[in-house]
Amino acid sequence: MPYLLYHIINAQPFNEGTLKEFGQVGIKAMDDRTFRVELEAPVPYFLDLCAFATLLPVHLATVEKYGDDWIKPDKLVNNGPFLLKEWRLNYRIRLEKNPLYWDASHVTLNTIDALPIDNSITAYNFYASKVADLILDKGLTPAVPDPGIENAS
After folding, report:
1. How far apart, in whole angstroms, are the C-alpha atoms of residue 122 and residue 3?
2. I need a surface site. Which of 5, 62, 79, 85 has the fewest CB within 10 A?
3. Mean of the pLDDT values across residues 80-94?
């Protein structure tokens, strides 16, 4: 999704290969912890883009060491409250509490399981029977009639 960053000066021509010198792209490291981004024009939602997964930092040494496997359990580096312990396709994603998280003493959950469910009835039944605590995909939430609308029949 490089097009999400095309608001940055010269990002599009660099991505498309018509500009070869990355130094001309509107991103500059100011120091070890700060970088400046220059935009082609004002973008009111740019801060929201910065919170999008596309712009999350990755640990370059891990990517270089493991290649495409860098995102797998026991290889993925992060600084969040949970670590990726298991990712079994069409079964679950298991996250476990990160003992190295800066505020680990206030993280009360030890494990989170994300279940890939693509059927709204199954998702609701899991939720209603307390197998799941949350349905993240609004499209899997069964429609509930608005009590303010009278039945026309």
Report:
1. 36
2. 79
3. 93
Do strands 34-37 and 92-97 pair parallel, antiparallel, or not at all (unpaired)? unpaired
Query: What pTM value is reported for the model?
Result: 0.63
Q: Give the sheet arrangement for strand 111-114, strand by strand.
A: 82-88, 92-97, 111-114
Q: Among the residues of 10-88, which ranges form H helices?
A: 11-16, 46-50, 60-66
- In the Cβ-directed half-sphere of 12, how many Cα atoms lie within 13 Å? 7
Provide mean pLDDT across the span 101-128: 91
Tokens representing residue 130 in the block: 């307390």
Look up tokens 């010269």; give the residue: 10
Give CA–CA dist 52/81, Å, rounded. 18
Alpha-carbon distance 62 to 92, whole Å? 24
Buried b (16+ CB within 10 A) or exposed e, 33-53: eeeebeeeeeeeeeeeeeeee
Q: Tell me the C-alpha distance between 82 and 133, whole Å.
A: 17
